[in-house]
Amino acid sequence: MKVRTRFAPSPTGFIHLGNIRSALYPWAFARSQQGDFILRIEDTDLERSSQAAVDVILEGMAWLGLDPDEGPFYQMQRMDRYKQVLAQMQAQGLVYPCYMSVAELDALRERQMAAKEKPRYDGTWRPEPGKTLPPVPEGVKPVLRFKNPQGGVVAWDDKVKGRIEIRNDELDDLVIARPDGTPTYNFCVVVDDIDMAITHVIRGDDHVNNTPRQINIFRALGQEPPVYAHLPTVLNEQGEKMSKRNGAKPVTQYRDEGYLPDAMVNYLARLGWSHGDDEIFSRAQFLEWFDLDHLGRSAAQFDEAKLRWVNAQHLKAMADEALAPLVAEQLKKRGLVADERLPRICALFKDRCDTTVALADWAAAFYADVNPSAQETAQHVTEAVKPAVAALASALAALPAWDKPAISGALKQVLAAHGLKMPQLAMPVRVLVMGTAQTPSLDAVLELQSRELVIERLQKA
């Protein structure tokens, strides 16, 4: 049987890292098993769903490389199919109309809670042999309720939580269609999973309470349910459930902040799954290693400092030619146009950076004016060193070639002539040319700048 997984987000808020992890694992499992990964947008909440939220889902998944094999499918475009299955269930006596009003239902629940009972629908309108139903009220459109099995248990072997058993008597008869005929979430999910031949449902554990209801609907429709794996919650840095309300950022914001997609996949993979003690791994390694047997049972906590560290490791390992276009994109946002030097600039500075934004901060000095701080200028570009800086400008102008050996030779010549040590000259030169006193090897930095620009900046001393 071919593995088929799905990611089924609701576009009622911008997708964050806690949500996207629920896309990563089914995507990875499908890829690791040569299966199919399906994207389904559950947009039946018309009041809260938005196209902007859909766009962030699609953009975020595309950025992370979580490409679906099928979809996106939209539930609102499948209404005819749901109504067809509802009609089939009505014909088979699997559902029944319920005329209990919201006020009656509220009053029932209040009585049950007062009696220390679990609040639940009591089956007033459920047809049974020999039972007389109340008279149908005039002008009231009923909901449709599913005839949940009575007695026995509904059970499944969860790939994360282990064996779970729920007594059917704990479950009331679920509303599966509203008075206007529109189907409800738990019913639509089952029809979708059947039609799309989903074999494994890997989702957040906030869905655990829906699972027994969905399994009973599967079986009523003559289908075996898929394998379930309910993932523990992702907590934010304060230990609360990650959510937009608690300050979680849209996934696309991490792209804009200079994180690498492979680093994000690496970091997210470790929020609930592990392969021994491996912290840093490639996408290919992740897909080779991933399985459902090493999913964690306890909630994982997001840590931005750890994410930045993981990103820095991937940045260092990335080929300079592959990194350069990402940095060029960051420079473009600042109105700067990169050139053929950028891969070499990336090579020189990437070990100092944890995002492409930080790398663009360094690269900008090669494509825009620099503005050293007054404090650094006063500290390093002193009256005592200015003659040596002027001498270096002249020596660099006279070089027959503009390369590291020639630049290094000019530096040594000026140091000897003025009786200085390298830091005494290098610091002010860095401040003038790069805007900061801390850079990699000075000859390597100067080589990547144009000779004219270096001399122009040194002459400002």
Explain what the structure shows.
There is one protein chain. This protein has 461 residues and is α/β, with parallel strands linked by helices. The chain has 4 domains: 1-73 and 183-317, Rossmann fold (3-Layer(aba) Sandwich); 81-177, Glutamyl-tRNA Synthetase, domain 3; 320-368; 374-458, Arc Repressor Mutant, subunit A (Orthogonal Bundle), CATH 1.10.10.350. The protein is 44% helix and 11% strand. A 3-stranded parallel sheet has the order 1-2-3, with helices on one face. Strands 4-5-8 form a 3-stranded antiparallel sheet. Strands 6-7 form a two-stranded antiparallel ribbon. The longest helix is centred in the N-terminal third of the chain and has 16 residues, at 17-32. It is elongated, with a radius of gyration of 32 Å. The model has no long low-confidence stretch (mean pLDDT 95). It catalyses: tRNA(Glu) + L-glutamate + ATP = L-glutamyl-tRNA(Glu) + AMP + diphosphate.
